[in-house]
Amino acid sequence: MAGHVLTPRALASLAAESFDLIIVGGGIYGVVVALEAVRRGLQPLVLERSDFGAATSHNSLRIVHGGFRYLQSADLARFHASVRERRWFLQNFPDLVEPLPCLMPLYGDGLHRTSVFRGALLLNDALSFRRNVRVEPSRRLPRGRIVSREETASIFPTVNSNGLQGGALWYDAFMPSAPRVLIEALIWACSRGAAALNYVEAQGLIEDHGRVVGVRASDVLMGGEFEFRASRVVNATGPWSRRFTSVAAKEQQELFEPSLAWNVVLRRPPLSDHAVAVAPRRPDARTYFLVPWKGALLAGTGHAVWRGSPDDPRPSLELLGEFLDDLNAAVPGLDLGESDVVRVSAGLLPATGPGTCELTKRDVILDHGLRGGPSGFFSLSGIKWTTVRRVAERVLRCAFPSAAPLPDGQFQRAPGAGRQPDYPFSWMPHPGDEAWKKDLRSAASGEAVHHLDDLLLRRSSVGDNPERALQLGPEACRLLGWDAERSKEELDRLSCKLRAATWTGLG
Predict the structure, then answer these.
(1) What is the mean pLDDT of residues 326-344?
(2) Which strands, in side-by-side order, build the sheet including 211-219?
(3) Cβ of 76: how many Cβ atoms within 10 Å?
(4) pLDDT digits (tens, 9 = 90+) for 193-221
(5) For residue 175, how far is the Cα from the chain centroid?
(6) What is the C-alpha to C-alpha distance for residues 441 and 489, in angstroms, rounded to an integer?
(7) Integer Cα distance of 95 and 123 in angstroms
């Protein structure tokens, strides 16, 4: 397949083929496992029961962290892995991933002293000296530095100046349109031989004498049961990974112990052109990032214990109120309230154990054949976007130890092959503006769009602003050729999904 085209929806034809690998789950982990599989000359099939990247992958803070925070605990292995994988994103998605200057005001509390951070920034730059190798000039990350009290206030005018000593300035990477990065990675994989189907739900494994030979699946859109054949299956279903292993083999509790995480889009202009790290001035307070995002303010990340279903994670109004209170305490005069909350993006991340929201520090990869399950069945549980490719490499080394990857020079993405425009948060088309319609038609024609929310929320940035998505939704339905009945169904579906992520929907 060439160009920006995902797999045609021909389930019967794909069921007649034999694949090397079936990946259950079409979030960022499943997609990148497919990408690394084709890099090794394998033919993978991705099965996703909803839309690609519709769950946790869609709800990140969009920062590709390089591991600066791991220096505090001297976790050099995680630090080096994060630097390397951040560079991979900058190398391969320069049209979608960009440098992000980050500023942390310093008040002399504990380790948050200019003397400590000066050494940490020097060490960060020294240990990440290869961070810009083969990265195009406009995407290279400068060195960090300590800035004065005056420069800190110039960069971040509303900073709490009481006791301010200066600031630590460093650089990470940022994905303004993270869902588009996922789709472009999937397009890349499909252009090299992968197949991918959304709205196809894996129901269980097909086994032969204790070995995996395929997956039973159902068509969520049209109905019907299908069997897809492969000698290996990777469970990359994230928060649902334990549920799927309990169906396919034996539940493994250590695979994914869920905790709740959320980020909030606020109806406020950015406080700076830098991402600023802020925390209330009290012991053990959580640090939050306030990120400039398309002319709006993106704040995160909140964390809490989660004991509910993985199907509908969302913070309570009480938790969200505490989150806003923390931001107000950290930034004088911010005065956030419920009317400022445009959207709450929530998902589940793996915790160290039940009843805690402390995130695990290590990815998990299980070979179920070594645990009494079927041979050829593997599960993975990842922590963050940054190191997704590293986890994909590890699981493929387990599943296909003799499959060698192509060198980087022989496996490159063509930047911008199917890129959609990145609209500012406040953008609305002028009367007579047809360009946005052309862009939506392009995405709808070859990117596995089956619902209105697929198109507006995950193939384009039109849906970044919920109010804009609802206003332009009827025209998008006409572009897709839907009749009045189908259009109403799709608009109701879109409205329901958007409302569920608002203050009113959380109540």
Answers:
(1) 95
(2) 18-19, 225-230, 211-219, 200-208
(3) 12
(4) 999 999 999 999 999 999 999 999 999 99
(5) 9
(6) 20
(7) 29
Residues facing residue 367 across a β-bridge: 378
Distance CA(201)–CA(46), nearest Å, equals 10
pLDDT averaged over every residue in the chain: 93
Amino acid identity at 258: P
DSSP type of residue 486:
H
Long-range contacts of the stretch 89-92 (C-beta < 8 A, 24+): 89/64, 89/173, 89/175, 89/181, 89/386, 90/64, 90/135, 90/139, 90/140, 90/141, 90/173, 91/134, 91/135, 91/408, 92/412, 92/413
**What whole-number distance in Å separates Cα of residue 502 and Cα of residue 507?**
9
What is the helix (H) or strand (E) element at residue 299, kind and residue range? strand 296-305
> Is the separation of the CB atoms in 259 and 350 below 8 Å?
yes
**Can you give 111-122 as a three-state secondary structure string?**
CECHHHHHHHHH
> What letters, b where the CB count within 10 A reaches 16 and e where it falls short, cover 260-289?
bbbbbbbeeebbbebbbbbbbeeeeeeebb
Q: How many CA atoms lie within 13 A of 456 on its CB side?
A: 28
Residue 265 phi/psi, 5° resolution? -90, 125
Q: How many CA atoms lie within 13 A of 435 on its CB side?
A: 8
- Tell me what pLDDT residue 249 has: 65
Cα four-point dihedral sign 109, 114, 119, 121: positive
pTM of the prediction?
0.95
Cis status, amide bond into 301, omega within 30 of 0? yes
